[in-house]
Amino acid sequence: MQDGYLSRTPIFQYILVSLLFPLWGAAASLNDILITQFKSVFSLSDFASALVQSAFYGGYFLIAIPASLVIKNSSYKIAIITGLSFYIIGCSLFFPASHMATYTMFLAAIFAIAIGLSFLETSANTYSSMIGPSKYATLRLNISQTFYPLGSILGILLGKYLVFGEGESLAKQMANMSPAEAHAFGEKMLQHTLSPYRFLIFVLLAVLILFLLTKFPLCKSKEDVDKEKKGRIKVGIGETLKYLAHNRRFKRGIIAQFIYVGMQVTVWSFTIRLALVLNPEINERSASTFMIYSFIAFFVGKFIANFLMTRYSPNQVLLAYSGIGSILLIYVVCVPNMTAVYAAIGVSIMFGPCWATIYAHTLEVVKEKKYVETAGAILVMSIIGGAIIPAIQGLVSDLLGSMRLSFIVPMLCFIYVSIYFFGELKNSKKMIPQNNTVDETISE
């Protein structure tokens, strides 16, 4: 179509694009395993252990704009292939990292994976929303995002059985060892981190081959395609940023995505730690089961939301979800027993549709489609919230001496997300009788 959307969805290509979502879900959930493992092996504070997420989501922030430039100058397919290649390189770096046994080297490997995932998310999120009729863009992206928790569950299962061991928790085992014995034992435990990434390399190579052999539609606006054919200068970053800076709803969407991603990453990063603190009798392998429950809950939440969105507006559904999520996090903060862990799992149900809906809605307010690739990249850059907010919670936990009380950080975040969707609901009601002035309303 003129705006880059397709008149119909090519099913095989859409399935392949959707299969990318569980791939970055697996990498993200493995970070939750690494945080718990590294905290004991390297004797880290909660703040220092959260730097795993800072390295991971910091890579997203730095690479999103370059990834959008690759899309602009080539295609979504090339950006996806580039992302898969960097992902494979990052996984391979875990081999030297495990032998060097330094926290810094592991962070470097995680950062390299994040470079690949930034390419994948920048391209796949926007591509999934555009690879079909525009009126189904939000639903299409939500369906693709439904595959994400399947990858998250896979990542946790790989970590549970390939990284964590049997017996008492690492902290208890190492507490009874001499410094030399603890160091040797820690190095042995670090070798276990290789196994999940070895498995991922084989899966990624298979997916890369499929993308190399499959033809994909461009999904670019007619204006961009005409410029490419005529060799004219493309829209620059400066012009795009100037356009987006005057769009208040786009800016509100960026802030909401920043807060949401940070909140989600924070809850998932510290659920295992919360379980270990509230029940010292369990070990890391047992505690990781709660993360499996969390991702199953996330998956269920997405399915329920997809059904509800066929009957109610996405903003109504998300307002209800975020309101309930805020209440559950208040429970986590206030209740000092294991039921708080189950409340944290319940929060994952409410996470379900947030990312995809904020992303698609924010992208929709970019009416000039020649700016859409860069707008999508800036939305992906908002993932930097996953680097900052977990570190804040880790710092709060260290200062208060309580992992449970530190959940006040994601609680405040979910309250803000509730306010955002309330505002979006009011906006959508204002726009219904003013179809002829939609662009003016969006600018306001």
Description:
Keywords: Cell membrane, Membrane, Transmembrane, Transmembrane helix. The chain crosses the membrane at residues 12-30, 50-71, 78-95, 101-120, 141-164, 195-213, 258-278, 290-309, 316-333, 339-359, 371-392, 404-423. By secondary structure, the chain is mainly α. It has a single domain, classed as Growth Hormone, Chain: A (Up-down Bundle), CATH 1.20.1250.20. It has helices at residues 11-18, 20-41, 46-49, 51-73, 76-92, 94-100, 103-130, 137-146, 148-162, 170-175, 179-191, 194-213, 222-230, 237-245, 248-278, 284-308, 314-334, 339-351, 354-364, 372-381, 385-400, 408-431, 438-443.
Fourth-level CATH superfamily: MFS general substrate transporter like domains
Radius of gyration over C-alpha positions, nearest whole angstrom? 22 Å
- Which structural class best describes the helix and strand composition? mainly alpha
Task: Name the helix and strand elements from N-terminus to C-terminus, one letter apiece.
Answer: HHHHHHHHHHHHHHHHHHHHHHH
Number of helices: 23
- Helix % is over 70%
CATH class, named: Mainly Alpha
How many distinct beta strands? 0
Which regions have little confidence, pLDDT < 50, spanning 5+ residues?
A: 433-444
How much of the polypeptide forms β-strand, as a percent range? Answer: under 5%
**In CATH terms, what is the architecture?**
Up-down Bundle
Largest sheet: none
| Fold-level CATH name | Growth Hormone, Chain: A
Number of domains: 1
Q: Mean pLDDT, as a whole number?
A: 84
Distance N to C terminus: 28 Å
Structural shape: globular
Organism: Sporolactobacillus kofuensis
Main location: membrane
Protein name: L-fucose:H+ symporter permease
Membrane topology: Multi-pass membrane protein
